[in-house]
Write a structure and sequence with these properties.
It is a single chain. By secondary structure, the protein is an alpha/beta fold. Helices cover about 45% and strands about 15% of the residues. The strands form ten sheets. The chain has an eight-stranded mixed beta sheet, with helices on both faces. The chain has a five-stranded parallel beta sheet with strand order 3-2-4-5-6, with helices on both faces. α18 (about 495-505) crosses α28.
Length: about 900
C-alpha cells in the first residue's frame, strides 16, 4: 500500500510529462465512456445510483441530445473507503473515460482531483461539499451541488437571527468536517459570534467514543450545538445525545443537511429515530418546483423498483443533483463535439518504464480534449430538475439557497428559507430574486420554532457550566474608601457597597452561580483596576467585581454590565470663608449688571426729559439746571421719591414701565444682599477643571485610578503636575498644605469617592461641574452571557428600589457636603433680567419716535410760510436756517410757540385786506 501511495504522489503530481504516441477516436463516436464512483449502499449513494442510471437512460433515449451518440456508464462502488475510491478511479480512467461523476466524499475528492488534474479528466461531484475543493487548486474538479460555504453561512445567519454568540461544533474529524467548521467560524466572526468549543470525532467512531465526546460537550456552558457529520452516522450521534439528556429543554441542535437527506430517503423513520430528532433544526438544499422535478418525483417509485431490487427509498436533493449532473455532462459533450473536439488520449512515456505490474500504471493516459470539455461543462446553461443550472466565475452553482426545517412530531415543518441573495426569509427565494437584494437584519424572518423539550420560547443558549468549577472573581483589595469594597472576617470574605450589589443581583439570575472572591492587590496600596481588567481578558479571572469604572480602553478588553452607579470625575478644592467688607453691597449684582442698570437709569431720565421739556416747567431752565434735573429724576426713581410731575402721556407710559422694572430690581437686590450678609459664604480660588489646568499647580489623584491616564492623555496635563495619593488622610493633608507647602491645589477623583470623602471633610468642596460621564460596572470576558444576565438583574434592582436601599446603607450623605456655596451663586447676572431691559428700551424708542412725529407735525402747522420766507436764500443756507428754526422750535415751550404762531396769523390778516384794496 505504501508503494502505491508513493507512485500516486510522485508520478501523478509531477508538473512535467513527456508525451508519447496519441490514440485518436472519430469526432462523433457512437459511444462515449463516462464513469461514476461513489458508495452504492450509502444514504446518498443508493439514491444517486438510481438517479444517475435513470438520467443516462433518458439521455440515450433522446437522440437529439447527443446527435446519435450514446453514453456508456461505468460505475464503481467505493464502499465508504477512500483508498478504494482512488483505486476505482484508476480503473475508470484507464478505460479512457472522458469524465467521472463523483467522488461522493470530499476526502476522496481531494486525492482523486490531483489525478484528474494531471490526466485532464473532469470530475463532476454531486455530493462533495468541502468548501476548500476550489477551482483554483483543482481546476478539473467541478462541484455540481451546493458548497458548504453557503450552508455554513446559512447556519451563521440563523445563529445571528436568534442573537446567540457562543456555539459548540461537533463534527467528523476529516477534511470535510474540519474545513466546513472552519468556514462556520469565519462566518460567525462576522457577527461577533464564535465557536467556543470544537468537538471532533474520528470517522467511524464507536458509540463509547461518541459518548466521551458528548459528555465533554455537556459540561460546557453553551447550549447551541452544530452537528456536521454524514447521513449514515448522524442519527447514532443524536441517539447518544438523547441518552445523555442533551435533547431536553434549553438545548438547540442545528444540523447540516444530512438530516434532511435521511428524512427524504427513509421517511417515515422509526419511532426511536424520530424521537431523537424532535426540535432539531436542519437545512435542505432548495430546488424550486417545476414540471421536470414533478415528473421525476412521480416516477421515482417505479425507478427504485426496477433499478434497486428489494429496496424502496425516497428521492433526496442529492439524487436530484446527481440526475442533473448526467444531463450537464451530456450537454457539455455535445457542445464539445460541436466545437470540433476529438476524443483522444496520449500515453506518458515515463509510465511505461514502470512496467505493467498488477496496478497497470503504464495504462494510464491523458485526455487531450480535457480542457475543451472542462470549458464546455462550465459554460453549460440549462434548466434541470433542480432549477436553473449554471456556474459562476468562481465555479459555484448560481442561486445557492436552503430550506430551514424544524423536525416536529412524525415529520417536519418548513420555517423559512435562506439564500445568499436576501438571507433568511419566509418567502421563496425565486420570488426574492425578482426584487432588489436586501439582507439587512430588519428584514430577516423565520416562522416560530418548536425547540427540544416541546417549547416555543427561544432558548437562552447557555447555562452555567455544570463542571463543578467555581468562578474565580477578582476583587480589588482597597486601602481607601472601604465602604465600597473591603476584606472582612477572613482572607476571602468581602463586604461593602459593590459586593452587596453583586450578591443582590445574583439572586435575580435563573440559575445558581458558584463563585469565589479572590483579593487583587497587596493591601498596602490601591491596586490598578486596569491591571485587574486585563487579567480578566487574559482568562486569569472569570470576572471582576468592585468599583470598576467603565472607560473606553477597558471596554476594548472586557464586557461590562449595566452601570449600577454613576460616577464621573470631579474637582475637589479647599474652601475659604468669604467675610463681609465695606463693598459687600456691590456683590448682589455682577459688574455687567451694575453697568447696564446705571445706563438705563440715565437713558430713562433723558427720554423723560425729552418728552416733558416743552410742556413741563419742572424740566425747563438753564442747561446746568436741566442736567441736574435729569440726574436727580433718574436715580430718585430707584426709591420712588421723584418730585417732578410727568404731564405727557408718552412720558407717563415710559415712567410706569421703568418703575415696574425698578421694583423688580429692588426686590431681587434686597433678597440677594440679605442672603450674602446672613449666610456664611465659602469660596475657592479654583472654579473648575479649566481654571485648575491654567494655574500650573500640582493636582492630586487616587493611586491606581484611571484618572492619571485621563488627565495626561485626554486633558494634556503634564505628569509632573500629577501627585498620587493613597488615602483620604493623604487627600486632606495635601489639600490643607496647598501648593506652596508641598501639597496640591485640588484633587481630581470620581464623584462617588469624593462625596464619601466630603461627608467628614467640611473644609473642602466639589467645585465646577462633573467633566466626565461614566459609571461603575462588573467586568466579564468578551461575549459573556453572564454579563448580559447580570445587566438585566441590575436593572431589576434599580426598578424595585433595592439598589437605592443598598446605596443608603453604605453611602449615607451628610449636610457638610452642601456648605460650599460659591461666590457667584447669589450674584445676580444680566441673563436673569435682559428681557426687562429689552422691554424698557423698546418702550423708550417707541415713545421717542411718536414724539418726533408729533413735533414735526406741530412745526409744520406753526411755521407754514417758512419756506417762502427763505426762498430767496441759497439752498445750503435755507436748509441750515430751516434746521435752526426747527431746533429753536423744539427748545421753546409749547405755549410760547402757540402764542407766536397766533400773533403771526393775526398780523397777516390786515396785510392781506390792504393788498386786496390796492389791487382793486
Amino acid at each position: 500500500m505504501n508503494k502505491f501511495w508513493l507512485l500516486v504522489f510522485v508520478f501523478f503530481n509531477s508538473e512535467s510529462f513527456s508525451f508519447g504516441n496519441s490514440v485518436n477516436v472519430t469526432t462523433r463516436p457512437n459511444v462515449v465512456n463516462i464513469g461514476a464512483i461513489f458508495s452504492f449502499n450509502s444514504t446518498v449513494g443508493k439514491v444517486a445510483k438510481v438517479a444517475i442510471e435513470a438520467a443516462v437512460d433518458d439521455v440515450n433515449s433522446e437522440p437529439a441530445v447527443l446527435n446519435g451518440t450514446k453514453l456508456k456508464l461505468t460505475m464503481q462502488d467505493t464502499n465508504y473507503s477512500g483508498f478504494l475510491g482512488i483505486v476505482e478511479a484508476f480503473k475508470i480512467m484507464e478505460n479512457e473515460a472522458v469524465a467521472v461523476i463523483g467522488p461522493q466524499f470530499s476526502v476522496t475528492a481531494h486525492i482523486v482531483s490531483h489525478i484528474a488534474n494531471e490526466l485532464h479528466i473532469p470530475l463532476l461531484s454531486f455530493a462533495a461539499t468541502d468548501p476548500t475543493l476550489s477551482s483554483l487548486q483543482y481546476p478539473f474538479f467541478v462541484r455540481t451541488t451546493q458548497s458548504d460555504l453557503f450552508q455554513m453561512a446559512a447556519i451563521a445567519d440563523i445563529i445571528k437571527y436568534y442573537e446567540w454568540t457562543n456555539v459548540i461544533a461537533i463534527y467528523v474529524d476529516d477534511d470535510n468536517g474540519r474545513n466546513g467548521i472552519s468556514v462556520l467560524g469565519d462566518k460567525l466572526a462576522e457577527s461577533r459570534a464564535k465557536i467556543s468549543y470544537k468537538a471532533p470525532m474520528s470517522p467511524g467512531a464507536s458509540r463509547s467514543e461518541t459518548t466521551n465526546v458528548l459528555v465533554k460537550v455537556a459540561l460546557m456552558d453553551s447550549r447551541i450545538l452544530v452537528l456536521h457529520t454524514y447521513a449514515d452516522w448522524g442519527l447514532e450521534v443524536l441517539d447518544v445525545a438523547e441518552n445523555l439528556g442533551m435533547l431536553e429543554s434549553g438545548y438547540v441542535w442545528i444540523v447540516t443537511d444530512w438530516l434532511s437527506t435521511v428524512l427524504d430517503t427513509y421517511s417515515p423513520l422509526s419511532s426511536k429515530a424520530i424521537a431523537n430528532v424532535q426540535g432539531v433544526v436542519t437545512l435542505r438544499m432548495h430546488t424550486p418546483d417545476s414540471k421536470l422535478k414533478t415528473n421525476l418525483v412521480s416516477s421515482w417509485s417505479n425507478l427504485t423498483s426496477r433499478k434497486a431490487s428489494n429496496s424502496s427509498f425516497g428521492l433526496s436533493t442529492y439524487g436530484l443533483y446527481a440526475y442533473d449532473t448526467v444531463w450537464l455532462l451530456a450537454h457539455a459533450i455535445d457542445k464539445f463535439f460541436n466545437q470540433g473536439g476529438n476524443i483522444s488520449f496520449s500515453n506518458d512515456s515515463r509510465l511505461t518504464h514502470l512496467g505493467g505490474g498488477k496496478l497497470h500504471i503504464d495504462s494510464m493516459s491523458i485526455f487531450n480534449g480535457g480542457n475543451l470539455l472542462l470549458q464546455s461543462i462550465l459554460g453549460v446553461n440549462m434548466t434541470g430538475v433542480t432549477g436553473p443550472f449554471k456556474f459562476t466565475s468562481d465555479g459555484y452553482l448560481i442561486h445557492p439557497a436552503y430550506q430551514v426545517i424544524n423536525v416536529v412530531g412524525n415529520g417536519y415543518r418548513r420555517i423559512g428559507h435562506w439564500s445568499n441573495y436576501s438571507g433568511l426569509s419566509i418567502e421563496l427565494p425565486e420570488i426574492l430574486y425578482a426584487k432588489p437584494p436586501n439582507d439587512s437584519s430588519s428584514t430577516q424572518q423565520l416562522y416560530d420554532v418548536i425547540w427540544p423539550g416541546q417549547t416555543t420560547q427561544k432558548p437562552r443558549g447557555w447555562v452555567f457550566p455544570n463542571n463543578g468549577r467555581e468562578l474565580r472573581i477578582g476583587v480589588p483589595n482597597r486601602v481607601v474608601y472601604r465602604e465600597f469594597v473591603s476584606l472582612v472576617q477572613g482572607p476571602d470574605t468581602f463586604g461593602g457597597y459593590c459586593i452587596d450589589v453583586f450578591t443582590a443581583a445574583l439572586k435575580f439570575l435563573p440559575y445558581a452561580v458558584p463563585y469565589k472572591l479572590i483579593p487583587f492587590g497587596d493591601g498596602h496600596n490601591n491596586p490598578k483596576v486596569s491591571d485587574l481588567v486585563r487579567l480578566v481578558s487574559a482568562g486569569v479571572y472569570d470576572a471582576a467585581v468592585g468599583d470598576l469604572a467603565i472607560t473606553t480602553n477597558r471596554t476594548r478588553m472586557v464586557d461590562f454590565t449595566q452601570p449600577y452607579i454613576e460616577s464621573g470625575l470631579v474637582v475637589v478644592a479647599p474652601l475659604r470663608k468669604q467675610n463681609s467688607n465695606a463693598w459687600a453691597f456691590l456683590r448682589p449684582f455682577s459688574p455687567m449688571m451694575w453697568c447696564i442698570t446705571g445706563i438705563f437709569f440715565l437713558l430713562v431720565g433723558v427720554v423723560v426729559w425729552i418728552l416733558e421739556h416743552r410742556i413741563n416747567d419742572d424740566f425747563r431752565g438753564p442747561p446746568k439746571r436741566q442736567i441736574v434735573t435729569i440726574l436727580w429724576f433718574s436715580f430718585s426713581t430707584l426709591f420712588f421719591s421723584h418730585r417732578e410731575r410727568t404731564l405727557s402721556t408718552l412720558g407717563r407710559i415710559v415712567l410706569i414701565i421703568w418703575l415696574f422694572i425698578v421694583l423688580i430690581l429692588n426686590s431681587s437686590y434686597t433678597a440677594s444682599l440679605t442672603s450674602i450678609l446672613t449666610v456664611e459664604q465659602l469660596s475657592s480660588p479654583v472654579k473648575g477643571i479649566e481654571s485648575l489646568i491654567s494655574t500650573g499647580d500640582p493636582i492630586g489623584y487616587q493611586r491606581g485610578s484611571f484618572a492619571e491616564n485621563y488627565l495626561s492623555e485626554e486633558l494634556s496635563i503634564p505628569r509632573s503636575r500629577l501627585v498620587p495619593l493613597n488615602s483620604a488622610d493623604d487627600y486632606a493633608k495635601a489639600l490643607k498644605d496647598g501648593p506652596k507647602r508641598g501639597g496640591v491645589a485640588a484633587v481630581i477623583d470620581e464623584r462617588a469617592y469624593m462625596e464619601l470623602f466630603l461627608t467628614t471633610q467640611c473644609e473642602f468642596s466639589i467645585v465646577g461641574s462633573e467633566f466626565s460621564k461614566m459609571g461603575w460596572g462588573f467586568a466579564f470576558p468578551r461575549d459573556s452571557q453572564l454579563a448580559v444576565d447580570m445587566s438585566t438583574a441590575i436593572l431589576k434592582l434599580s426598578e424595585n428600589g433595592d439598589l437605592q436601599r443598598i446605596h443608603d446603607k453604605w453611602l449615607r450623605g451628610s449636610a457638610c457636603r452642601s456648605q460650599g456655596t460659591k461666590e457667584n451663586v447669589d450674584r445676580l447676572e444680566l441673563n436673569s433680567f435682559w428681557g426687562l431691559f429689552v422691554l424698557c428700551g423698546f418702550a423708550c424708542l417707541l415713545a421717542l419716535l411718536l414724539y418726533l412725529v408729533q413735533i414735526v407735525n406741530q412745526f409744520a402747522r406753526h411755521y407754514p410760510d417758512s419756506e417762502e420766507e427763505l426762498a430767496s436764500s441759497s439752498g445750503q443756507s435755507s436748509r441750515s436756517a430751516r434746521i435752526q428754526t426747527f431746533l429753536s422750535f423744539v427748545g421753546e415751550k409749547e405755549e410760547v410757540a402757540k402764542r407766536r404762531s397766533k400773533r403771526k396769523r393775526m398780523e397777516r390778516g390786515p396785510q392781506k385786506e390792504t393788498q386786496v384794496m390796492m389791487d382793486l
